[in-house]
User: Fold this.
Amino acid sequence: MAWGATRFTGKEELFVNSDQLIKEAMIARDRAYVPYSKFKVGAALLSSDGQVFHGCNIENAAYSMCNCAERTALFKAYSDGVKSFSAIAVVADTDRPVPPCGACRQVIAELCPPEMKVVLTNLKGDIKELTVEELLPGAFSPEDLHE
Assistant:
């Protein structure tokens, strides 16, 4: 893959591409808390400076209190002060590459650049790559709030 970021891990440098980002998403998926649906989802968000933020879905007995993997990763990054991203990978046990829900698409569209890579995959290894803009064309944006 031509895209990616150099990740500095102490003494070594690691170039992160889609295959490596998918592996990170699978690690995040293993941490999912899904006692009700049993539907594990993992996300790995690559910042522009090479940091990887894991996210997993977290359920709750009050179903509306759940949070998806994609939003977990983005919220973790933002809460750590990181606001520039180059890619996100999402993985789940689905027949097709896992599509993000509408809420996640909206959050990704607002917090990530339109040209950023989105890598969707499943446990069978099917991969679909697109951009944030392709993920949610015509997304509602902060500019829509101004008169």
Observations:
- The chain is about 25% helix and 30% strand.
- The first strand starts at residue 5 and ends at 9.
- The two ends are 42 Å apart (CA to CA).
